[in-house]
Design a protein that fits this description.
Chain B: It comes from Allopontixanthobacter confluentis. The complex is a heterodimer. Helix content of chain A is 23%, strand content 28%. Chain A is an alpha+beta fold. Chain A has one domain (2-97). In chain A, strands 3-2-1-4-5 form a 5-stranded antiparallel sheet. In chain A, a hairpin with a 6-residue loop joins strand 1 and strand 2 (14-17). The longest helix of chain A has 10 residues, at 36-45. Chain A is globular, with a radius of gyration of 13 Å. By secondary structure, chain B is an alpha+beta fold. Chain B has 4 domains: 6-110, Sulfite Reductase Hemoprotein, domain 2 (Alpha-Beta Complex), CATH 3.90.480.20; 142-291, 2-Layer Sandwich (Sulfite Reductase Hemoprotein, domain 1), CATH 3.30.413.10; 321-393, Sulfite Reductase Hemoprotein, domain 2; 408-543, Sulfite Reductase Hemoprotein, domain 1, CATH 3.30.413.10. In chain B, 37% of the residues lie in helices and 17% in strands. Chain B is globular. The termini of chain B are far apart. In chain B, 55% of the residues are buried.
């Protein structure tokens, strides 16, 4: 699947296109298909996202998994600070990213 | 310590107001990201992997207790209660909101700090010897010259858009504690046979994808021509440095391609021209700056003995202190490398403790080391035990200075958008491995440095053992280098061979350490043994 990510303009938080808006949670990411470029242009112009780009990912049994480790780390948080990730209570989350 | 005058403060305050307005215009949509990016970078604000990152300048690594406490307050109020001390003697905050940036810079300005020129193609923060003003082996305190360079380079209109970023280091001893020859310009303050002070200029060093050791292009520049000669070096670079290819734009490439002799000839011609222009700051300004760096009121006759009755303290004191020029005093190094910890990270509470210790025991001064530790430069020997007890109670008493656990590591792929691989977990695992097997103390001095990409923020080229993280078809892979040094015997590490997985690199470091232990002769450090026996025994052990 072709998913879109970027950062929130004001907070810098990593966000994911969920089909209607932007979510903090990678697992909400929607397949943008062939519309990626149009969505990016529209959303960036409206300042709803900063520095957006499209990446490859797949939907697995446990959620959405970006193809590259960099985006998987973006989706969770720093692997060396589980307490600062989006899943601080899940001890397996970091291992699934790597 | 240097204190801002009205001009310094006015400049910084004006920049705060300007950048606050620029941030608001970006939020309001009056600036695009393309327009805003160069503006935020000029103020040290990056967009990193998880959020905005703010890099705050710490000139030549020197902080007062009040400044360190302000950094702690910013960590608490605007970030996630910690900060990361960097290999350029700065601090970075990883979780900054754009809407807070103006307020943070205003808080910094209240304590005479800023984030100006911590990014962009300009002259960056001037770094120096972290034992400056305390070390017995310096010919003079290098910090007044670093400060003069800071003032000259701040907002210098001609050097605001250089071909690439530009880094100075200034030292004043034959022992290099600032990786001087791995900077764009390294300056060593020296004394000539007539007893006069001057500056030796080393130009064209650097790490990154094309590491080079700076050649000395002039052995003695009179100190009343320091700025003029620096300007000449920069002018030739600004004129001929490549702007068509960012990977070939650093001054090291220019010096290499022209040849040091031709580059020097052009600098000397420019220098002669500039001397006629009279651009050197008046001597009175240097004299004014020097007054801020006079020795504190050391206690004459302070006890010169340490009470070593506590064995844990004795280990720390032996490992983490440095001789002081004043009898009865030491410089104490606070390791930010606890076993399994994140190199360079300090919590807000730890920063406050270090601020308090600086105020109570070190004449209100501490220093950031490029190895991501903190120095209390002037501690009475009689106070050292009390200092250690407080550090120990706060997780800051690790006795591992310059040992295998004292690892430099860049933020790597856990934080950095440029990184190809994670650095911190590798550092953590190596630190834990050698703590568990008990070899750390046996190995003695072994400087290990890890970078998560070829940009080499973790100084991997200069590690006795260096590790470079690369992306191998989407999987983290780690190259091993041996034989680097950033000290006065500067050398660049060489890659051993094929890279290793995350598990494999930890084993490989231990294998290399074992080769050293088996082969070392009396008094040899890891680096000495490597230089004597060469790469082959290590390759044989690593790859069979």
């Amino acid at each position: 699947m072709n998913i879109l990510t970027g950062n929130d303009l004001k907070t810098g938080a990593v966000i994911w296109w969920d089909g209607a808006g932007w979510s903090l949670h990678l697992d909400d990411a929607a397949d943008a298909g062939d519309d990626a470029a149009a969505i990016i242009a529209r959303e960036e112009a409206a300042r709803r996202v900063n520095a957006p780009y499209a990446i490859n990912a797949e939907r697995t049994g446990s959620g959405v998994r970006p193809a590259h480790i960099k985006d998987r780390i973006r989706g969770l948080g720093p692997t060396v600070r589980p307490d600062l990730t989006l899943k601080p209570e899940d001890p397996q989350a970091v291992h699934e990213v790597i | 310590m240097y204190q801002y005058d009205q001009y310094d403060q006015a400049m910084v305050d004006a920049r705060v107001a300007e950048f606050r307005d620029q941030c608001q215009r970006r939020i309001d949509g009056k600036l695009t990201e393309e327009q805003f990016k160069p503006l935020r970078l000029m103020n040290g604000l990056y967009l990193q992997l998880h959020a905005y990152m703010l890099r705050v300048a710490i000139p030549y690594g020197t902080l007062s207790g009040r400044q360190m406490r302000a950094l702690a307050d910013i960590a608490d109020k605007f970030d996630r209660k910690y900060g990361h001390f960097t290999t350029r003697q700065n601090i970075q905050y990883n979780w900054i909101k754009l809407e807070d940036a103006g307020d943070i810079l205003a808080e910094l300005a209240k304590v005479e700090m800023h984030a100006i020129q911590t990014s962009g193609n300009c002259i960056r923060n001037i770094s120096s010897d972290h034992f400056a003003g305390a070390a017995a082996d310096e010919v003079t305190d290098p910090r007044p010259y670093a400060e003069l360079l800071r003032q000259w380079s701040s907002f210098h209109p001609e050097f605001s858009y250089l071909p690439r970023k530009f880094k100075f280091a200034v030292i004043a001893s034959d022992t290099d504690r600032a990786a001087m020859r791995l900077h764009d310009i390294g300056i060593q303050i020296v004394r000539n046979e007539a007893g006069e002070l001057g500056a030796a200029f080393y130009v064209g060093g650097g790490m990154g994808r094309t590491p080079m050791i700076a050649p000395c292009i002039r052995q003695f520049v009179p100190l009343d021509q320091l700025i003029t000669y620096s300007e000449a070096c920069l002018r030739v670079y600004n004129r001929y440095g490549r702007r068509d290819n960012k990977y070939k734009a650093r001054i090291k490439i220019l010096v290499h391609e022209l040849g040091a002799e031709e580059y020097t000839r052009q600098v000397e011609a420019e220098f002669a021209h500039l001397l006629e222009q009279g651009i050197e700051p008046p001597f009175a300004e240097l004299a004014r700056i020097r007054t801020f760096f006079e020795d504190p009121a050391f206690e004459a006759g302070a006890a010169d003995e340490l009470d070593r009755s506590d064995p844990d303290f004795a280990v720390w004191a032996d490992r983490n202190t440095h001789p002081h020029k004043q009898a009865g005093y030491l410089s104490a190094v606070i390791s930010l490398k606890p076993v399994g910890g994140i190199p360079g990270d300090a919590t807000a509470d730890q920063m406050r403790l270090m601020a308090q210790l600086a105020e109570d025991y070190s004449f209100d001064e501490c220093r950031v080391i490029h190895t991501q530790n903190i120095v209390l430069p002037h501690v009475r020997k009689a106070d050292l035990y009390a200092v250690w007890q407080k550090l120990e109670a706060s997780g800051l008493g690790t006795p591992n200075l310059d040992q295998v656990g004292d690892i430099i590591a860049c933020p790597g792929l856990d934080y950095c958008s440029l990184a190809n691989a994670r650095s911190i977990p590798v550092a953590q695992r190596i630190s834990e491995r050698f703590a568990a097997n008990g070899k750390g103390e046996t190995l003695g001095e072994l400087k290990l440095k890890i970078s998560g990409c070829i940009n080499a923020c973790g100084h991997h080229h200069a590690g006795h053992i260096g590790i470079l993280g690369v992306d191998k078809k989407g999987v983290e892979n780690y190259q091993l280098l041996l034989g680097g040094s950033e000290a006065e015997d500067t050398s660049l590490g060489k890659i051993t061979g094929p890279g290793f997985s995350e598990d494999g690199i930890v084993d490989a470091v231990e294998t290399a350490a074992d080769v050293y232990l088996a082969q070392r002769q009396d008094g040899e450090r890891f680096l000495d043994t490597y230089r004597r026996i060469g790469m082959e025994p290590f390759k044989e052990a690593l790859y069979g």
